Amino acid sequence: MVAAEDPEHFFAASPPLRDAAVVAASLQEFVARNSHASSDGVGRRRIVCVTSGGTTVPLEQRCVRYIDNFSSGHRGAASTEYFLKAGYAVIFVHRRGSCQPFSRFLPDDSFLHFFDVTTDSKVQVAESQATVVKRAIGDYRKATEGGSLLKLPSLVDTEPNTS
């Protein structure tokens, strides 16, 4: 049995990070952009990392058996929104399928309920959903285009191996 205080062994035995070089470059750029003042007025924001969604821990190298907990990710999505509103830059690490920032007020039904097909066969947002969808899109774009939100899918490949 490996001692709990041996982090090198833990990381050596863990599945590799997905797209490690791309993730590292994205993180470096995000941190640099938000920790230094720039000519466009962006920068010098406090940076937080929010993890959201359930956690899966493999019991073996080829993940057939695993321990998993369920989390919808609503708390992580809400925390991210609150940090952004307070002026923080947020690194949002999320599990596939978990709730995303600015989507938690959208109905849990299929996204197809958000749309209508017009008489001339165009697709548009249903009038009953227009206000909440507009707000979600506006807030999301403000955060992403403003450089204050970096979304990263779970970095470790812990999804069960179905092959």
Describe the structure.
There is one protein chain. This protein has 163 residues and is of the alpha/beta class. The chain has one domain (12-153): CoaB-like (Rossmann fold), CATH 3.40.50. 31% of the residues lie in helices and 18% in strands. The chain contains four helices and seven strands; from the N terminus they run ααβββαβββαβ. A three-stranded parallel sheet has the order 1-4-7, with helices on both faces. A two-stranded antiparallel ribbon has the order 2-3. A two-stranded antiparallel sheet has the order 5-6. β5 and β6 (123-125) form a beta hairpin. The chain is globular, with a radius of gyration of 19 Å. Residues 47-144 form the DNA/pantothenate metabolism flavoprotein C-terminal domain. Belongs to the PPC synthetase family. It holds the Pfam family DFP. One of its GO terms (molecular function) is ligase activity.
Alpha plus pi helix count:
4
According to CATH, the fold-level topology is Rossmann fold
Q: Do you know the CATH architecture?
A: 3-Layer(aba) Sandwich
Return residue spans where pLDDT drops below 50 for at least 5 consecutive residues: none
Instruction: Please compute the radius of gyration using only Cα atoms.
Output: 19 Å
CATH top level class name:
Alpha Beta
Instruction: Give the end-to-end Cα distance, rounded to a whole number of Å.
Output: 29 Å
What do the pLDDT scores average to?
83
How does the major sheet shape up?
3 strands, parallel
Strand order of the largest sheet: 1-4-7
Overall strand count: 7
GO molecular function: ligase activity
Protein name: Phosphopantothenate--cysteine ligase 1
Family: Belongs to the PPC synthetase family.
Keywords: Ligase
